[in-house]
Amino acid sequence: MPLIQNIGYVRRDLNILRxxxxxxxxMEQMHNSRYAFNRTHKWFKRRVILKxxxxxxxxxxxxxxxxxxxxxxxxxxCALLCHYSPGGCMKPHTDHIAFHPFTVLVNIGFCxxxxxxxxxxxxxxxxxxxxxxxxxxxxxxxxxxASLTFRRIHSQYLLR
Length: 160
Fold this sequence. Notes:
The protein is α+β, with helices and mostly antiparallel strands. It has a single domain (4-158), classed as Jelly Rolls (Sandwich), CATH 2.60.120. The chain has helices spanning 14-23, 63-72, 155-158; strands at 4-9, 28-29, 36-44, 46-49, 55-58, 78-93, 102-108, 111-115, 118-122, 126-131, 136-138, 145-151. The strands form two sheets. Strands 1, 2, 3, 6, 7, 8, 9, 10, 11 and 12 form a ten-stranded antiparallel β-sheet that branches. Strands 4-5 form a two-stranded antiparallel ribbon. Strand 2 and strand 3 (36-44) form a beta hairpin.
């Protein structure tokens, strides 16, 4: 059984989603990351500062993100929009234990996503799910690429 599941594709609204991503303001740099390079990001619903005891704070959420997240992952409570410039990549890693491992990713652009010993060429608009406890990585992209990843934060981290 493959380590990613193809949920489907954003087709009809893909150009609208691409324009929306490019219009996002206040994308943050990841200056201290040991894993992500040439990447900016923006949190929706909740912002997570990743450290041993993560800081989690409510942030605004765009109506488009709410509708899409509720449709493809009804239990989500946190979303992360990432933009990778050409050459951008993410080294092999597993996600923080504050997150439930089931993750849903909307791919905007083209990329090669590796998980476990599998390599997947993700298509523009493709929506996948995967277990983020399995080591995964994004190989260097050749053109601008974005992802909108929906996650669920474990309740014990929300009660702090």
